[in-house]
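Researcher: Next sequence.
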Amino acid sequence: MSTFGLEKTFEPKRVVVVGGSPRPHSIGAIVLQNLIKGGFTGDITVVNSHYGEIAGLKTHPNLKALPFVPDLIVVTVPAPAIPEIITQAGELGVAGAVIISSGLGHGLGSIAEAAEQAARAHKLRIVGPNCLGIMFPHVGLNASFAARHPTPGSLALISQSGAIAAAMVDWGAEKSVGFSGIVSIGDQLDVDVADLLDYFALDDKTRAILLYLEAVKDARKFMSAARAAARLKPVVVVKSGRMAQGAKAAATHTGALAGSDAVYDAAFRRAGLLRVLDLRELFDCAELLGRHVRAPEGKRLAILTNGGGLGILAVDRLAELGGVIAPLTSDTTAKLDAALPSTWSKADPVDIAGDAGSDRYLAALDILLADPGADAVLVMNVETAVASASGIAEAVTERVKTVRAQKYSSPKPVLAAWVGTDQSVAPIFDKAEIPHFPTEDDAVRAFMHLVKHREATEALLATPPDVSSLFTPDVSVARKVVGDALRDGRSWLDPIEISILFKAYAIPMVPTLAAGDPAEAAAKAETFLAQNLAVAIKILSRDITHKSDVGGVVLGLTTRDEVHDAATRV
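Model: Next structure:
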């Protein structure tokens, strides 16, 4: 249903907590307190048949007893009671439900299926179950059990993990970065990643979208929504389960297979999403996007520092990540010569020496900002007893604000890394909305995130090459394979048919051969064994879909005898 009903769900006028509780530290109590303390100005009501009043609010025994129809219900009751609650809500005309409760199960016959069917019958939207909740600071809505309240801002977060969502709220509070909306999707019984991408892509309060994913349920729907959203605003994704062990853990967590990471990586690139690998990098991207930093025109970085060693480390990391140190033009070098002591480094990174004060920093910064060979500037400082680190930070931020106010057609991004300083420096950069980082490594990685986002956007708009210039598919062979299967009344192809079909379209795959008996299998394996390759024996049966379940698969065979014995057993 895409965005149907989501506006009322995320910007409700009336909210009911079903299962609100007076018991300290219970989910029902925390959700209710978050709603009250979050600044929500609409009506808040509680459904609980055991108490007449909770937190100063009159309670009702069930949804049917309410004097009004709520826009949103937040459900914290035990799983078995949820289908009936969703049925009542649907009959009343409630727009959406956030099911925080867990234990609804998955698939046919589960409590989750009953709740989903009840919701669909009345077009009621469900967020969750098994989620942290939702938070929309611009309307004061904190329908979650998070420990802190997010502040209003321009970042939207869609998270398949409640813990990750909670961590982002904590991080945002520490860094003074606000959110337009935070949705913990949990098991995605109804509202999924694609629905939320569609919603936030058109939300005028959202400037950028952050995603934490473990698995995508509907690939086609996701790709369509992701491509559309990425055309309008930056979309950053971190996906867990990149390694086999992580993918197995993700399947346990979400109840869905994570799939091949290479497929996800290709899909993200094609959709124009910027992929990062961990939470640290997601935080860095949020830092950049929350400060409204524009993407650089290229990947040439000018580095200004008072520490030579720090500059060298930054250059190493820049080269490792695919960036380029900005080549100083002769005009820029001459201007730096005139403005700086003769001891400066004469190259990028521009090392202005450890005794540099604010005046020296500003003189060099002005020149680098005007250099056409630099796409962005990284200003770094190591605190010394000679010059005040906070004083230099104040001077740099004021100069950057002045440059921004001049409304240049394309002001360069400026990043900062104040290494080893106390906490007094961070608020200076926060106030000026200049991204700042604790180390040169973090700052360089952040710059490359900007570069990769620009490249992802360009790739999104690129047209794939015409494959007809590379090969001509054997359509007649492919049609025969599919036609034979259809005439047999089959809905899937066996491995040999798949091999023939892929070969007709020049799609590489593992060589797959048919053998009529163990001796033939051993003979056909010889070609691969001679190349020190292992082979697998699989039963060839159109009646058995999951071959490994019946012992029909043997892997890792490296000798002719092993192949013969395995084929005999199968």
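Model: Residues 92 and 346 are 74 Å apart (CA to CA). The chain has a mean pLDDT of 91.
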